[in-house]
Fold each of these.
Amino acid sequence: MSEELGAMSGADVTGQGPAIPEGQPIRMGLIGLGAMGRHHARVIREVEGMELVAVADANGDKHGVARELKVLPDVQSLIGAGIDAAMVAVPTYLHEQVGLALAAAGVHAMIEKPIAATVEEGERVAAAFADASLVGCVGFVERCNPALLEMRRRIEAGELGEVYQITTSRQGPFPARIADVGVVKDLATHDVDLTSWIAQSPYATVSAQVTHRSGREHEDMVVAAGRLANGIIVNHVVNWLSPLKVRETVATGEKGSFIANTLSGDLTFVANGDVRSDWDRVTVFRGVSEGDSIRYAIAKREPLRVEQENFRDRLWGRESEAVSMSEGVHALRVVEAMLESANSGTTVAL
């Protein structure tokens, strides 16, 4: 792992003993019972070692996930229920307010991505949890996708050789649930985070173009390109105006390409072939030849469940892939740089 990302990764949660004694049930609270919160409620109930003891949402429980629990009105009432840790699934503009309240009360938390609405807010949240010696994590569920987990493992094992480029495509119809941010902070944050994580390097530069086609205040399409600190070049195509839903990450290196379809959880490897062509013109122009293609048989577990298990393990002091708040701030810094680049027409150095 690069020194830059190594210093950033886990900086606010490592070097401590378990936050909660291993094996002791974790009393979980959940704030936000909307599109994501309803799934978190189900998964928390299913994860061994977690107990959902309190839920809160100022707008009630329109999905009917509270069951026997009283729907509390705010974060203070959630804290008052005597929780050990909380899952925060409120709209992005409330992340700082809710996160700071939890940190002040000594409650560990995982906050849905992005960590906050702005870098400054995210830094305040991360600092509050670090200063209080609390476990603070960010919910980047794509890191738990089986195809990406396998891709990262194989790249780390050297199966791709030197990595040259990582590209992502995240396109689909507009999600009516999103009202407070544009496509950059809602979706591109996933691609920025998973790219840094796969490459084990932070971003060094980024440039982007955005457009507004849906009549909303925020951007709905972005194309971005950049370079990581370790020299890997990256490209992201993200929008929520495409009738075709695409979720694809491609890592290309000296030995071939890994193609992850995160909708299906499939990972395919296409090798650089070593078959020589007798047709001179083809040999000259192709550069590399297409070799064998393998689609791996991999175990496919629900990413959201893996995410909550990672949070549990971090709380218990186990080795964990939970995303630190420092990493969450870096992802937010990169996407804000994308918006700055689109506005200024320049490449932004991070």
Note: The chain has two domains: 20-134, 143-301+334-349.
Amino acid sequence: MMKSAVYQTSPARQFLYFVVIFAGVFVVFNVLGILAVGLIYGFGLIMDIARLNFSDPHSIPALYLLQIVTTTIPIFVAPVVFAAWVMRKSEEYLRVKQSFPPMLLVVAFFIMMVSSPLIEILSNINQQMVLPQWLKGIENWMKQSEESAKKVTAAILNMHNTWDCVKNVFLVGLLTAIAEEFLFRGGMQSVLIKWTKNQHAAIWITAAIFSAFHMEFYGFLPRLLLGAMFGYFVVYSGSIWPAVWGHFLNNSTAVIATYLFQTKRINLDPDDQHVFSWWQYIFSLIIIIILLLVYKKVAEGKKSPALNGEELG
């Protein structure tokens, strides 16, 4: 009876449960992460990291530990708790067991590879954002948040050898991809599809929340695009794994490119946002649309009724 009652909860209330569970799990693991770092390295180091002071040689290992315990683990655990323990329908929400044509991974690979120009132009547009004078305080806070995120990312991606690169491909590439896709394209997008009864609305709302969650507002548009593409990967295939694959490719490519640049094996700075021309921006957009249509065609017949906003019996 309890199982049936929980499952029949309205999508709006399901979304509320999802947010509350995530907030609770996030707080618990943040406390655990701070305690762990404090007990291992000393609480003074936590204050240094909060001030973005990474001069202590223990600051980077401590930062990795904080990243895993306070961010990656709760982002993964929250949707699993929601889907498996609260809704008792983990497969319907997380889509981890759904089969899909392997060719989708190939198509997703090419989509990610040709997306760079479009991501660049969206980033450049985003960088020109200026808020009205009466919102100057918010704009200053957004810039400070952006700079803080860049400093933390730079500290994590400061790589000196191949092992550093492999470690970041695993942490930033794989673990982050799995955790964030479970949270956003798994739990959140599944609930929003049921709530809005519109796949496209759910995909773009989830993508907007996904982008805002990173607190890097001058990278909002490119991350919005990526979130939407990952959303379509899930909706068209019925499985979470093509989105995890696409997310992994995006993050890992950035890690590897940064490593190659830092070790002077390539001359192109991955942070350079003026690499492509206008015709390449247009070409990127057209090819992505075509490849998404190909992706949908290959996946045709694999969609689950639940992804169309229908409840499974």
Note: The CA atoms of residues 163 and 285 lie 35 Å apart.
Amino acid sequence: MNEFHLDRTLVRRHFARAAAGYERHDALQRAVQEGLLGRLDFYLEQPRLVLDVGAGTGRGSALLKKRWPQAQVLALDLALPMLREARRHAGWLKPFQRVCADALALPLPDHSVDVLHSNLCFQWIDDLAALFGECVRVLRPGGLLAFSTFGPDTLRELRAAWAAVDARSHVGRFLDMHDVGDAMIAAGLRDPVLDVDRYTLTYSEPAELLKELKGLGATHADAARGRGLTGKAHYRRMLAAYEEFRSDGRIPATWEVVTAHAWGPPPGQARRGRGGGEIASFSVDSLRGSRRR
């Protein structure tokens, strides 16, 4: 399903470098967060443990704590400098905990999370089977997973501008909504619902977009990217190609956002294994007394 791979070390490094100035560039992230919070209305219980994966500077984590002040809220991120910045949003009246860890190896017990939230993080993880497998592992049966991620139409103008200059990989690639949905079902998540929205941000010059991407840490981390330096003449040709998209005096940048939610499966529900078969799991307690004597 996935034909590309991300350099996870580079992803961590980019976000670590961007941490101090991240919130000067996160207007899109805030807008998407507002819509994602609406998905939480489907969860009608009082959660005990809420996990924010890819919490960044903690704005979303603070909103989760405000929504559920009695719950334990964990802000988890791969980049430690992001979590240091998140300290500013963890107020003493409504504090949340910060954990530096990888979404592919969540440091939590099985079936311990009531709500797993993630805003624009999953696009930086190329192994969806492992990612959703971890989500299923830590979610309680009937727990809510709600997340947003980028779709393949994201930054299509920038991708086309670079393609007019050379055939090298300059812009990250993102998975289609149907691939994401298939991975959710394969992991055993129940009743997934996915929607797509498109946002268009505009800039005075293409260079302003590139500055914003760097400020967000959202720069190219595909393992297949070119390793050589991009020359000034090469760069200027890309900027000139981007000018073809100028409209009403502004340069557009498209962002395709996939928003989804699903539910943790009941104990024993089968999920697809990597070899194509199905795997079911049961707690030891549920098997006690089932043996014939």
Note: The beta strands are 49-53, 72-77, 97-100, 113-119, 139-150, 190-203, 251-263, 271-272, 278-279.
Amino acid sequence: MTTSHAGREIARQPLAWAQARERLPEVAGLLPQPGERVAVLGCGTSWFMAAAYAALREAAGAGETDAFAAGQWPAGRAYDRVVAITRSGTTTEVVRAIGAAEAPVTVLTAVADSPAAAGAGAAIVLDFADEVSVVQTVFATTTLTLLRASLGQPAEPAAAQAQGILDGANSLPPAVDAARQFTFVGAGWCAAIASEAALKLRETTRLWTESYPQLEYRHGPISIAEPGRVVWIFGEPVPGLVRDIEATGATVVNDDLDPLADLVRVQLLGVRLAQRQGFDPDQPRHLTRSVILAPAGATP
């Protein structure tokens, strides 16, 4: 199996998470303050990190927090602060949203001299978490680690678990590698991590993947569960869920891991399965590192 940029970037995550935690005292004043009403924006993976942070911030009692895909942001809604997440700083929808914002904007990006950083009132540049692969791993999880740390959640437990996974701990059963369909579920902020896991595996392997909040899973999606398929639970399962899934014959992945560490297992699985099929995990088909749209009215 050849080494990919994605594989190396996945392996950098524990160190990058520690670096993000060390940056917190320097950038804390640029992040949402307790009681502020906040909108968090992103696209793709960054949108899921925004949704995870929004759920975590509200659960911590830090203030009302809404997450939006940048292209769906209701710009006329009143907020005290807008947080935009964009690895490249060039994604069209994010740059447009920053330009339309009336509240102060803090952008989290990996590129200091990007349009998003230039357009925002404040920029937190995590250039040590930049990456070559089109498929996001290290930047997204490092950004969420910083945001979790700003809410008082330590980075060390997740980093230690992730390093253990990289070293071979918490291996997955063989049925997972052989599966032909994956469903990821989670509750609270873990629902956003489930969405990111489904996206990651879909991008790299072209497999059929889905994601749902835990309590929604039994409202229809469980009907596709059967032998040869996987249901992967992030966080603590609701009572009865594991029993109901096991009754279908599907393989259940349900381990006591921090969801970000568990996401590393999905990232590694994606690279492994992609390479097994001869796919390039760094450059999935039809994708680019940043989505830059043509100006309105331009000829396609």
Note: The chain has two domains: 5-156, 171-256.
